[in-house]
Write the structure tokens for this entry.
Amino acid sequence: MTFTRRTFIASAIALGLASSSAFAAKPLVIGFSQVGAESEWRTANTTSIKDAAKKEGVTLKFADAQQRQENQVKAIRSFIAQRVDVIAFSPVVESGWDTVLREAKRANIPVILTDRDVNVSDKSLYVTLIGSDFVEEGRRAGRWLADYAAKSPKKVLNIVELQGTVGSAPAIDRKAGFEEVIKGNPKLKVIRTQTADFTRAKGKEVMEAFLKAQGKDINVLFAHNDDMAIGAIQAIEEAGLKPGKDIIIVSIDGVKGAFEAMIAGKLNVSVECSPLLGPQLMQAARDVVAGKPVPKRIVTEERVFPAEVAAKELPNRKY
Ligand code: AHR
């Protein structure tokens, strides 16, 4: 029989030892595989997780996957070999996790997903997913744009879309939510859509290509994150156009960079996606290890920030 920290804790609780000093002295060990450092959002997410672990006295084994699934698989296998108490990770893409998650299950190590979902046939391969409702974020972006379009004198607004990482949950879900809302709206038409991998550099590069191909036909940019929108803003300015005016820009995350762009009149709205998941992750990990029930889905609360409220809200922003 494999003796894990979980079985130890369960026995300790049963024997009434949970408050003994020997038990309290052993810190919880979490192995965390992060997507990378592709955006302002991701940096804030990493800080939130590291700070929460420090505050809670949790030993965090942190691995940066540099946006590659194979690096995450390697990290998870190494966490299994090190016999950490809990494995947590934010999956780069949705599919391809069954094998490694089965290995974690066989080793009796609970897995917590943060931020992004996985597409697995057996949902018992992970305990919980803590993070945003990405479909709803896409819908929120679509609703803001539909309201804008209703007031616009233009007959049709041509939209270009910068998608996040191909195969990632936020790219798939935000696109779906946005399309669901604008579907059948005669004033809104997506004329180009392409991935820019959630980065500023690619956001700029792909927007340059859109501008070259479509020029002044572009009325709206929908970017799946703020970083791609900020990169695109540069491309729009370099093309001699005014971002936020000649091209309306809708994006997602609500990072400080987006608030600054809104205050400068270059971005019209940012739909919030909170990266501050560290405290919830520590709590869920402790609960799982203590054998307490944890909800299968923990959804983050979020808002929508149009440019008009940006100056007032910026001082309150934590990321
Ligand atoms: O998974 C969350 C997304 O990933 C954020 O919107 C984006 O900025 C990040 O890279």
About this structure: The radius of gyration is 22 Å. Residues 38-39, 41-42, 115-116, 170, 198, 225, 227, 252-253, 273 surround alpha-L-arabinofuranose (CB under 6 Å). Residues 12-23 have pLDDT under 50 and may be disordered. The chain has twelve helices and twelve strands.
